[in-house]
Every structure is written in structure tokens, then in C-alpha cells.
Amino acid sequence: MTGAWTASEVPVIGAPMAGGATKPALVAAVASAGGLGFLAGGYKTPEALGAEMAELGGAGVPFGVNLFVPGPSTLTEAEFRRYAEELADEGAPYGLELAGAPMVVDDDHWQGKIDLLLAHPVPFVSFTFGLPGADVVSALAAPGMQVLATVTTLGEARAAVELGVHGLIAQGTEAGGHSGTHTPEQPEGKPLRELVQQVVAETSLPVIAAGGVSESSQVRELLASGAAAVAVGTVLLRTDESGASAVHKEAIATAGSDATVITRAFTGRPARGLRNGFIERHEAGAPNGYPAIHHLTRPLRAAAAAAGQPDQVHLWAGTGYGRARTGPAADVITALAADL
């Protein structure tokens, strides 16, 4: 990927939404409209990710893969235990004993997924939550894979360029779900258009713009600002091929205006979602502690979604959630790429 975006017929990318929203069917639907979809490798075992890769590869669908970069945990056992006890009453109705939950810190099967990609190369591999080591970048590049890094500030972009990646994903503060910030304890971030302009002016690498995009006019503006392509996620959450839960889809459909906030309450890492009671009750006490807090609240979120209780579900959504529509995902991509 040099100079211009040439990976797909139209410069619109289906963002990798971890946790179930991005299924192979959604990636395939994006590709059918001329875009490029990314599988979400986060939270999956190498075996589960490999099965999805094989499904798309067997069908001849072009795609990329996204991975979470593991980082050091600064959360203390005392901080974790305090928050677990704070959440005890939330889990009680579902039979969950959150106060005594173990503190789990893992690397999300990091090496296993790198090994999987080396054994089964794909055109593009993107990283979020930080930068992989130089050895990982060079190993993935050897068989021809293009490595993309998610950045939220100009400083992060400079570090990624120095590392030798092939492209940058500039994520603005409008983005739904987890921020890709490299410093979750003190996230900086910028509005998308400002970030894109800064990064484009600083580097000759292709830049993919991501964050709150939901209309074709935004796509055109970002491309005019120098972006090589635009990534979208929230606007695909209600489509036929989305794997988002029924609770999540309904919450997006019925939310009022200006309903999103950035919170650590569910996972210990800043993420944008629809405001609900859980956030209001616990944001003030939520520590910086990914992935331990993610593992702590995961059974609660699953139980609440199964029970149809949006008040305790992480309803990730970007600022463009009001324009998310039902129907085929291919139609959404086609509409976003109109008049380019």
C-alpha cells in the first residue's frame, strides 16, 4: 500500500469491531460492495480467528485482520478488589459473585495470533492499543503483508512511522468502542478531521480516517483532507450481517441525540458508547485497568444482554450512531461511496 489506497474498488473500510459485531458475513458484505473488511482478532483464540480467516479465504473474499497489542498493566490488586466489590450488587441478580472474581491479566493470545498470520498471510494486518515490536513488523512484512498502526495523536503517528509500518489508521475522538490510544491512563486524542490533516501533513504514508463517519459527505471531506480511505463501524451495527446483540441494535435505534460518552467503567480502558445506568453509577470509581476490568465485567455484560437489560451492557457507538440503519451492509457501503 504505497501512495494511494488500492486495496479495494472504493476507499471505504469495514472497521474490525471485536466482541462479536464483526462476523465473516459482515466482512464479506463490505467486500461485495467494493470495500475492504477487517476481521476482529481481539478476544478470540487463534483457533477461532483461524476458522474465520479460512471461511473468508475459502470464499475468495479479500480481508484484513486486526489485533490488540498487549500492554503493561498498572492496576493493583487492591484497586481491582475495590472495584469488584463496588460492582457486587450489579452481578447479584444474575447469580454472579463479582466481589470475589479473580484478577485476570492476559495478552489475548498474542503470540499465537502472530504465528497464525505468519502461517497464513493476509494482505493487511492492523494493530490497535499500541505498537507491536519492530521484529513483529518485519516478520509480517517478509511474506508481503502490509502492517497498519492505529494512532490517535501526532506523536503516536511519528512513533509508528519510525517503527516502519506501511500505513496509519487515524482514529478521532468520535470513534465508537475502545480508543486506540497508546496511553490509556492519559488519553489525548483529537477530532478526526484535525487529526487526519496533521498526520497527512507529517507523513507520506497512506492514512485511513476512522471515527464517527456515517455520511458520504464526510467521506468526501476526509478524502479531500488527504485520507487514502475511510473506515466505518457504528453505521454497520444494525445491518443484516452485523453480529451485534439485539439489545445493542435496539439501543442504537432508540437513543436520543448526543447520547454517547467516553467511559472506563466496563473495561478499564477508555471507550465511547451510549450512556446508561452502569456508566452513571460506576464511571467515577472505574480504574485504568484493561484487561482485568474487561474480564471482571464480561460475565455481567453477557448475562444482561441475554436478559435484554441494556442498562448493564457496553453499548459501544460512535458519534454517528443516529444514522445507523437496518438492511444489507453492502447498501451502506455503496451509499457512503456515492459520488466519489
Automatic annotation (TrEMBL):
Keywords: Detoxification, Dioxygenase, Flavoprotein, FMN, Monooxygenase, Oxidoreductase
Reactions that this protein is recorded to catalyse: 3 propionate 3-nitronate + 3 O2 + H2O = 3 3-oxopropanoate + 2 nitrate + nitrite + H2O2 + 3 H(+)
Annotated transmembrane regions: none
One MF term in the entry's GO annotations: dioxygenase activity
A biological process from GO: response to toxic substance
CDD domains: NPD_like
Cofactor: FMN
Similarity comment: Belongs to the nitronate monooxygenase family. NMO class I subfamily.
Protein's name according to its UniProt entry: Propionate 3-nitronate monooxygenase
Organism of provenance: Kribbella italica
Lineage: Bacteria, Bacillati, Actinomycetota, Actinomycetes, Propionibacteriales
